[in-house]
Write a structure and sequence with these properties.
Order of helices and strands: HEEEEEEEEEEEEEEEEEE
Distance between the termini: 45 Å
Radius of gyration: 21 Å
Shape: globular
Number of helices: 1
Helix content: under 10%
Structural class: mainly beta
Largest sheet: 18 strands, antiparallel
């Protein structure tokens, strides 16, 4: 039910177009996405929704919103199946750099299902950032924040990416966007965070990097490649496990062919991909010493989907793919159907 409501809110947001003023616009982070996978054998099913920023402009400078993560197999805070962390952002009246705005942000509390009858945690964060307007609803954002969790593990975080301001009265003129030499880019870039807790002197360094790029060889043929990696390094003083590290990565190469039946907003395609994924982890066992484990596998995908143009530079990316067994599936499970909804950005072109 929660995923349904979140999906409806996302659909309501993306079916609006931009305007020159911020008031009345929706704000979507580049990582806003919904994913679903099922092998239809009763042994493997996953669903997830994520959005770092899901907000609405009450005025031209005041944004209210929330970070939302929900899913069937998410490693969320306190093992909750969903977390909702509200925030307020104010864009400062500083106009020294053309097309760039500066903002301050504060958030308090996290809603979820944390067990022991608790549905609210007293987390808080505050931060500052800069946002550059690239036009047609696309903005590049850099944010530095300090986040204090109720568990006592506090993080200093820097995240970078492309985000979207959608809504209002700006008309979309249907100008051409698929052009030879143009790029189709994943808007999520990455983040780095350092966490520290005084109890046990626990230190947690996390890095998340995402690179996704497509190049139009012709108006209809797109060559794409992607790589993402997430690393965690934890150290602490005291007895028991004192060090832990993990690294998960995935890379792919693929082709998309856009069908001649494309309309102004709807751009259907077929796709094929070959991918590789890996996972490794290690820890320092106080009895047996250093322990490690790693695995790698390849996978392939065939599928179809469509881009839905939100503006001339921003698009919704919808696809349904048949995926061979990979690291995310349990060992020996049949191949799965994977559906996803995400966001893309068009850059360049002749």
């Amino acid at each position: 039910m929660r995923l349904t409501l979140l999906s409806l809110l996302l659909i309501a947001a993306i079916n609006l177009t931009g305007q020159s003023e911020n008031q009345g616009k929706f704000y979507l982070s580049g990582n806003t996405s919904f994913n679903y996978a099922n092998n239809f054998q009763g042994t493997y099913e996953q669903a997830s929704f994520e959005s770092t920023y899901l907000g609405f402009f009450l005025t031209n400078k005041l944004l209210v919103g929330a970070e939302v993560i929900a899913g069937t197999d998410e490693d969320l805070y306190d093992d909750s199946p969903f977390v909702i962390s509200p925030f307020v952002r104010y864009y400062l009246p500083i106009n020294r750099v053309k097309n760039t705005q500066f903002f301050a942000e504060v958030g308090f509390g996290t809603f979820g299902n944390f067990g022991f009858g608790s549905s609210f945690e007293t987390d808080f964060h505050f931060g500052v950032g800069a946002e550059r307007n690239f036009g047609d609803g696309v903005v590049g954002t850099a944010r530095l924040r300090y986040k204090a969790n109720s568990s006592g593990l506090n993080y200093t975080e820097l995240d970078l990416g492309l985000n979207f301001m959608l809504g209002g009265k700006q008309a979309w003129d249907g100008a051409a966007f698929r052009k030879q030499g143009a790029f189709l880019v994943d808007p999520t870039i990455g983040s780095i965070g350092f966490g520290h807790r005084s109890r046990g002197n626990l230190r947690d360094l996390r890095l998340n990097l995402n690179i996704g790029l497509g190049y139009f060889m012709t108006k209809n043929l797109l060559v794409e490649a992607g790589y993402n990696v997430e690393t965690i390094d934890v150290d602490r003083d005291g007895v028991g496990f004192q060090e832990f590290n993990s690294r998960d990565w995935q890379a792919y190469l693929g082709l998309r062919y856009f069908l001649p039946t494309a309309t102004r907003r709807w751009q259907p395609f077929v796709l094929a991909r070959a991918g590789w994924a890996g996972a490794s982890s290690g820890f320092d066992d106080p009895t047996f010493g250093p322990q490690s484990n790693s695995e790698n596998s390849g996978f392939s995908e065939l599928g179809a989907g469509t881009l839905y143009m939100l503006t001339k530079k921003a698009a919704l990316d919808v696809s349904l793919r048949y995926q061979s067994e990979g690291l995310d599936a349990p060992a020996g499970s049949p191949n799965a159907m994977v559906g996803s909804v995400g966001l893309k950005v068009f850059l360049g072109g002749k």
